[in-house]
Amino acid sequence: MKNKLILLIAIYTLTSLILQSQDVFKTQRTAWLQKAEALKPKLAQVKVKPVHAITTRPDRGAFQGWRVDRKWSTDSLFTKSFKNQTGLILDFGQHLTGYFTMKLEEIRGVADAPTRIKLTFGEVPSEVSVPFEPYNGDLSRAWLQDEIVTVSEMPSEFTLTRRVSFRYVKLELLGASRFFDFKIADAWCMAGTSAAAVPPPLKPTTYEAIAKIDSIARNTLKECMQTVFEDGPKRDRRLWIGDLYLQSITNNHTFKNHNLTKRCLYLLAGLSTEEGYLPSNVFERPGPHSQKGAPFLFEYSLLYNATLLEYLKATNDRTTALDLWPVAKKQLDNPKKFMLDNGLFNDTAAAANRWWLFIDWKEGLDKQAPIQGLIIFALNQTVELAKMLGKQNEVAEIPALVEKMKKACMDHLYDKDLGLFVSGPGKQVSFASQAWMVLAGVTDTAESQKILTYVKEHPTAVKPGGPYLMHYYVEALMRSGLTSAARQQILSYWGNMVIKGADTFWEVYDPENDYASPYKFYPVNSYCHAWSCTPAYFIRKYPEVFQQ
Q1: I need a labelling partner for 41 at 20 to 30 A (CA). Which of 25, 135, 286, 401 fits?
Q2: Residue 7 has what pLDDT?
Q3: Is 166:96 a contact under the CB 8 Å cutoff?
Q4: What is the pLDDT of residue 410?
Q5: In degrees to the nearest 10, what's the CA dihedral of 199, 300, 297, 515?
Q6: Is 370 helix (H, G, I), strand (E, B) or coil?
Q7: pLDDT of residue 68
Q8: Closest CA to 306 of 173, 419, 475, 67
Q9: Quick one: CA dihedral 471, 474, 478, 483, positive or negative?
Q10: C-alpha span between 49 and 123 (Å, rounded)
């Protein structure tokens, strides 16, 4: 009996040790999350009032078919009966992220019944013009920013508990007693951001259109800089690694809030899986947690390493980089899991294993070639990070793997007749494939210039579906020395959003389709989205190209 008890205790102890060993970062998690919490910023807040009362009207020539029309001073709203002005829209003149407050006052009689008002907030005019019902979008209807407020007494002042992200707010009276009248006496937003610093001005020689793009790009980043780098302050309002990478490199050349980057890096590390792999996105509230059950967004986990490298370059904070190095190193396990003997990554097998390969919001885009290039890029970034930390011996096998993967690109993905990289069984030609091959260093400068020139001339090449991939295409142009083409691309792509009325840059933009949406309903798109902020990165990192 005694021997059996000893055996059971031994088995239990061994099992416990095995279970504990399955969580590779068990001993570091608490410390990482504590460091993230200690770095949580206090938001700089400012009280902003509307500048105009407006209406909108259909116009086929305007962005998404709606034009702002008939501006009045807000005095007309704040001094007169609201019953006669229901449906008016307040224009705050700029994009804001914060909490909306409104004051109501009687102007005749006594409020002998509740008053009900509907508020609809929009980042662009269509959001306060297009009916939300019937809603057939793919995302939750609750992301749309409309609220109904019931006021029981007057005078009254109320603040919405929901944080909103908007420029426009439409006010509609749904119900009030006919025995009294009232006015909206005041309205304002307490807007917040953790981007408190003022970036240095551009050179006086900067072309006006470039300066305007830079201003809007910085405003886009500012609005997304809350207590983490959010992907979009309207939706999804959380930290995604792919957005973080682009936000952090832009932040390095604008607001320089490096502690926010550091907080995000620690938050992601602390919420890695028990196997040590990084979630694509995390939430802060009610407590830090990842999106359980979500597909593994493979490429985003690798971009964490690039983010850590750029953070180290910007800050020389070796302590943080060394603390998080084990996380970066652990991400290198995954490319090998679906690597074929010939050096190609098996994207089909990865997708079948519920790995999400994103690359771009573009229907029909084949991912084989671009994901191959992205992996090589991330491996190169990790090796550079290791060298800066004196850890190159821990990744000694990676350079050989990189060379094997590069050779596979030329042997299996390069079409000599086209002079372009092709992807998948259909030999698809895309901007994504060429951009990531250039960024991976698969081709030298001369070859890179050729493929980036040829892809623009190819009649069926799949173009970028949004600003996320467009960033990497512009980065590839810069890396290959096609600086004039890069400048022109920013002027034509982001500059076209400016022409169409953007005061922050959008999650999705197709110059040929103003109604493009991955979610089957364009008002639910994010019109202030983190991955669209990078023109400020290019404009400020390369002043000789963009500020002359």
Answers
A1: 25
A2: 44
A3: yes
A4: 98
A5: 40
A6: helix
A7: 95
A8: 475
A9: negative
A10: 16
Strands (E) located in 124-177: 146-151, 156-159, 164-175
Instruction: Report d(CA 378, CA 359) in Å as an integer.
Output: 14
Element (H, E) at 381: helix 368-389
How many CB atoms lie under 10 A from the CB of residue 426?
A: 9
pLDDT, position 147 = 98
Q: Which residues contact 50 (CB under 8 A, 6 or more apart)?
A: 74, 90, 91, 92, 93, 169, 187, 188
Contacts of residue 432, defined as CB under 8 A and 6 or more positions apart, other chains included, come to 359, 360, 362, 365, 369, 370, 462, 464, 469, 472, 473
Q: How many CB atoms are closer than 10 A to CB 110? A: 9
Provide, for the chain, the percentages of residues in helix, strand and coil under a 3-state DSSP scheme, each rounded to the nearest 5.
45, 20, 35
Q: Are the C-beta atoms of residues 378 and 306 closer than 8 Å to each other?
A: yes
pLDDT of residue 253: 98
- Residue 158, token pair as written in the block: 């109320």
Domains of the chain listed by start with CATH number:
44-192 (2.60.120.260), 208-546 (1.50.10.10)
Name residue 535's amino acid: P
Question: Residue 343 gets which letter from DSSP?
Answer: S
Residue 514 burial (CB < 10 Å; 0-12/13-18/19+)? middle
Average pLDDT per run of 10 along the chain, which is 548 residues long?
A: 45 41 92 98 98 95 94 88 94 98 96 97 98 96 98 96 98 96 97 96 97 98 98 97 98 98 98 97 97 93 98 98 98 96 97 96 97 98 98 98 98 98 98 98 98 98 98 98 98 98 97 96 98 98 97
Structure tokens, 70: 């008939």
Residue 52, strand partner residues: 91
Task: Calculate the CA 30 to chain-centre distance.
Answer: 27
Closest CA to 303 of 279, 322, 275: 279
